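Attaching the record inline, Q. Sequence:
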Amino acid sequence: MVAVTALMLAGTLSAYGHPSASALAAYEADPAVMELRLDLQENLEYAVATLIAGTLARS
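Structure, as predicted:
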């Protein structure tokens, strides 16, 4: 179950990890917007670690 959920998380986060051309233009126009950008690897690692910790706590 953990593997399936991790795959779903990876697929979902990858959509947000590759910004569109308009998002990249917004980042260039206003650097403060860059704070909203998601780091795919960092967020996936955190989400999977939380998933595993929660699974272990429930078992």
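The helical segments are 2-17, 21-29, 40-58. The chain has a mean pLDDT of 89.

More tomorrow.
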